[in-house]
Amino acid sequence: MKPNDQKNDFIRLRAEGKSYTAIAKELNISKATCTAWERELKAEIAEKKKDQLEEMYQAYYMTREARITKLGQTLESIEDALSDVDLSQVSPEKLLDYKLKYMEALKQEFIDTTPAIPLEDSFNPRDIIVVLADLLKRIRNREINLDQASKEMMVITNILKAYETVELKAKLEMLEDIVGSRG
Questions:
Q1: CA-CA-CA-CA dihedral for 101, 90, 73, 66, to nearest 10
Q2: Distance between CA atoms of 116 and 149, rounded to whole angstroms?
Q3: Domain membership flag for residue 173
Q4: In the chain, is it the N or the C terminus that has fewer CB atoms within a 10 Å radius of its CB?
Q5: pLDDT tens across 48-79, in order?
């Protein structure tokens, strides 16, 4: 087997999660070679893992788009069954329960497509307040789900903390200059 073929097999096997022992045995190489190739081929292994995961997501409907499609189709089937059912013979509670569960699952897949108010490259605390107010408005209007809102809030809070830190450092430097010029 050519060295490049061995390296390609190493990448594939590592991406599949095989141990150095198993790979060394299968490719007839040493564990030291495995360690060296791991360092050398780290990016290729990560890319291969990513490709394999993407294939699995597609195969098992794990992408957001596929989940939304599948949930929507199931919800339509439930609604069709509800409209056709003779309520005197079938328990409507069971179908209504499924309908509510699928509607909630579909709601959780919602992605806000309206853009949030952007922060410019140069901004001040008032701009951050405007962004926070926009976030609150989108939450109240149910334009974003609570998970997305929490993520955005965390980012905005971190931006505010960073801004405050920079401002505080600038004020400290200014005070140090004033004190230094007096002494």
A1: 50
A2: 11
A3: yes
A4: C
A5: 888 888 887 676 666 677 777 888 888 888 88
